[in-house]
Amino acid sequence: MAPAVTRARHLGRGRAAWNLVTGADGAAAYNFGRDGHWDTEKRYDWADEFVEVVRALWDSWEDDAFTRDKTAGRYIEATKLHAIDHVGEHFSARGPLNVARPPQGQVTLLHAGTSDRSRELGAREAEVIFAGQPDLESAEEYYADVKARGPVRRGSSAPSIRRRWNSPCGKRTISGITTRPSIRSRSATPRTSKSK
After folding, report:
1. Which residues of the chain have pLDDT under 70?
2. Whole-model pTM above 0.85?
3. Considering only CA atoms, which of 47, 67, 57, 82 is closest in space to residue 6?
4. Do 33 and 73 meet the contact criterion of CB atoms below 8 Å apart?
C-alpha cells in the first residue's frame, strides 16, 4: 500500500489520496484470503496498526535524501534513509520504503464511518471524513463528537476540525468534515513505529 499510493502521488504531482476503509461487507474478506469478515474491533486494530506502519514508511526518507550528485557518484544520501523496525500484532516492517516519500511528505487520508472506533480513527488520522446521517440533527451530533475527539488525539489544544458541508441527499444528510490541512508538512521528522 505505501509504495503504491506513493507512486500514484508522485505521478499525480501530489493529487492522490488514500481512502481508509475497514469495511462491513462480509464478501470483502475473500479479497484478503479469509473465509469470514473480522469483527469490528479486530478490523480497527488492524487498521490502526496498518496506518501507523504506512505513515512511518512514508517518513522513512528525509526530503533531501536524493543528492543526485553525478560528480561524487552518489544518487542518495544513505544517512537520510531510516529503518522503522516495526514489529506489531499484525505487521512487521523494517523499512525504509523502496520509493521516495510522497511530494508533500504524507498522503491525504479519507475515511468514512459512524462507529465509535471509526470516529476515533477518523479524528486521529483522516484529513477528510464522510458520514451519512438520517437527519441534520444527527449530522450535527456526529460533527461535534468527531471535533471533540480530534484535538485530544492529535495532542492539539486548538481544534482544526471544521464542517465543510451538510447536504440533504434523499432521506439522509451527508456530512463532510475536514480534520486538518490536507497537505502535511514536507519537513516532517522521519518517524519510527511505536510498536516493538
Report:
1. 10, 151-196
2. no
3. 57
4. no
